[in-house]
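Final report, Chapter 2: Outcomes

The project's central promise was a pipeline that accepts a single protein chain and returns its three-dimensional structure in a standardized token representation, suitable for archiving and comparison. That pipeline is now operational. To close this chapter, we reproduce one record exactly as it appears in the project archive, with the input sequence first and the structure output second.
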Amino acid sequence: AMEAPVQRHRARYKSPGGPPWRETYRRRCLERLRSSRAKLLDRYRQAGDGACGPAPGALLVQEVMEQEWQELRDSLPGLRGEEPMEQMLEDPDELAVLEEIQQELILQEQSVIEEYERSLRFDEECLNAMLEGLDATDRLICPVCRKNNLTVQTHLVCCQCGLYISTQDMTEGKLRSLLESTLTEHSQRCFHSPEFTVTSGMEEETSLLMSCPV
């Protein structure tokens, strides 16, 4: 007699689609994880400071699942007042659903981290190419396109990519020194590669701007 309520409780979740809350919970977990991209990458950077080896897994997944479970339990009449997530894990059917959602979230999280790592590698390669150009005595690589050599004259700095800046008493040595000191100053505070663009306003002269997406 004591087992009858438990059997009825489990029978509710044996429909082909799984528990009735499954899709809502899965969708909300995925949305919360996507909206927490910046937080995830910040945790990944903190976890990776000074460490080597594979990327840490599930940095946000458990937190996302617990937060969404709390909100779902409070919003759906069928779940209001039931056990917290950790107690629900005693039910094999519900455990299977939660594990399946957890694995999907972990894959999503790893995908974001892998995309970020690819971006970092690309930035590092571009920065290395730029620094190699700065170190060379016979050429100065354009910081905007990172491909062509700059033409540096007394009153002009230009590149085939379209960079065209009026200057005063400029030399390759001065420009190289300015770029090196600016890149060095930035690298002491941030490991992300900066970007260079050419900006100009209605009443301002064209100038070279260094910015950092982080």
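Archive annotation: Residues 23 and 111 are 21 Å apart (CA to CA).
This record, like all others produced under the grant, will remain available to the consortium after the project formally closes.
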